[in-house]
Amino acid sequence: MNVIGKMVNHKTFGVGTVTELTDTIITISFRGTEKRFIYPDAFKRFLVFKGQRVQEHVEKLIREKEAVAQRQKRIEQEENERRQKLLNFKISANSHLVMDIPSEEIDSVFQTLSVSAGTYLSGASKGLPRVLDRVKPNSLCLITSCLKGQEETERKLVGAFMVEEDFFGEEVSTGIIKGHPKYHLLVPNDRCILFWPQLNQAAPSRWGGVAFKYCSTAAANQMLSEMVGAVFETDQSDAVQEFYQYFCKINSLNPLNGTGKRKLCK
Question: Are residues 121 and 173 in the same domain?
Fold first, then answer.
């Protein structure tokens, strides 16, 4: 709306006429003396247009500006809260995940860097997505796979990714785990690693119906170290070394020396 030439009333200077308007400054002439005010803010306290339509117009601008400011304030507050949460979160025991992924879905998992935690198998929440209350920004998601018809002893450790840096599983109702866009690795097929020996455990007869199992930080550290060793001198080498350093830093760990007790597939 064009407000040039419109009359206003000021609490102190009396009646005036608008002579100029920019995005933020309105200039008003009071009996030949020009005064400049912040626009439209000055109309909240000092100024009033004499015309109803133009006054309603400026009041609408004020409401819109205040709404934008409130939205920005909420965004800044949420960002500050997010930063504080990232700085102060406590690492849960057994906060890392070992996923059971069918071999035909592995490429999709690493293309999307997301995976489902499955649903509850019993109880009042049966059929609902699993709530990952232990999973936090320090969590590592280890990807394993066992071909149909193979013995559980042949389960392979095929890759891993960190969860997103602001991922808190207790806040996720979908059960979808989002991976970090930078920190992930896929073990080449010719360098695959058997899973159960990494835990110094005999394999059970079957995995069971769950999509994932929790594991300790020590076990996660061992397995990630093994995978880093498995991709040594490949085109992933530098990236996975950085990945491993990030994992150790956020979990307050010392990197393991060497590649541990890797047992390769036959």
Answer: yes
